[in-house]
Amino acid sequence: MESTVRTWDIAPEHTILTIDARDFSRAPESLQPALKEAMTTALRAAFTRSGLTDEWEEPLFRRDDGDGFVMAFEPLRSWRLVDPMPRYLDQELENYRVEKGPTDPDLAIRMALHIGPFPASRLADSINDVFRFINSDTAKTALEGAVAHRGHTALLLSDEMFRRVVGAGRSLLTEKGDFLRIPATDVPNKDFSRPCWVYAPRVAPEQLAAHFEASGPPSPPALRNGHRVGGLAADLVRNAAASDNLNIHTVADHITSLHAVQINQAGLVTGLHPKATQE
User: At what angle do helices 137-148 and 125-135 cross, to 10 degrees?
Assistant: First the structure.
């Protein structure tokens, strides 16, 4: 007789932070310990400067993954992880860049921040989701965009975390216009697409948006009142017809593709910095 034990109680909500160093495993083995120490030093300094010394020293949970960390905190002061911690971390990494030797590897860090139940079992959707955020192509492309503009840090916020902090006015210097809203997608072997907000200190959202466009599909066409001017749907169906394979199933497939493109375009367009619309 099969027995299923269901967990009915909802675990207390905590803030979950994942941290990952860009291209850490590509550094020569002999340099990885020093690179990890530089990463840890920069994070410790950024936490301390942000008033989060206790959170760094004694988090609710910490796991060292070699090229990064997973940490969990009480939500009370976690707004500081959104602002000012990323700005201080970017400054610390710039100091590393200036002081490192010519043969030392570069150091850039991407982070994902989420909020949700954090049970003792460590088995929860919120934990799974924050790993999918950090491993998404969106997070990786955001950091590449930051590096392309001389930045060293990219933070990806879940929609829930964004609403709790930025949307609620719990940020010192950052505001909604400092973030790029875009779906987190293309996680290897996962059917995952969630809205998120990307922030890179010293890099404007329109610069990140341009990098996403250059790194992905062709630039989205002109929009009027949030809608495509022209026939993207017609283009998709026309391409199917040209292959002599036009039927109800291929049309449905192409409409699905169109929907995915529209979601991506909407994320890029609505996340643009106000300055981008004035030019």
Answer: 40
Q: Percentage of the chain surpassing pLDDT 90?
A: 61
Identify the domain containing residue 50 by its residue range.
Answer: 13-215
Q: What is the pLDDT of residue 207?
A: 95
- Is the residue at 191 inside a domain? yes
**Do 237 and 177 share a structural domain?**
no
Assign 122 a pLDDT band (cuts: 50, 70, 90).
confident
CATH number at residue 34: 3.30.70.1230
Q: What residue type is 272 in one-letter code?
A: L
**Tokens representing residue 246 in the block:** 């036009």
Give the tens place of pLDDT for each residue, 24-45.
Answer: 999 999 999 999 999 999 999 9
Domains of the chain: total: 2
- 251/202 same-domain check: no
In a domain, 7, yes or no: no
Long-range contacts of 190-196 (CB under 8 A, 24+ apart): 190/132, 192/132, 192/136, 193/263, 194/129, 194/132, 194/133, 194/158, 194/159, 195/159, 195/267, 196/133, 196/138, 196/156, 196/157, 196/158, 196/159, 196/162
**b/e sequence 111-136, b meaning 16+ C-beta within 10 Å:** bbbbbbebeeeeebebbebbbbbbbb
Q: SS3 for 192?
A: coil
Residue whose pair of structure tokens reads 């707004």 in the numeric block: 79
pLDDT tens by residue, 233-247: 333 334 434 444 444
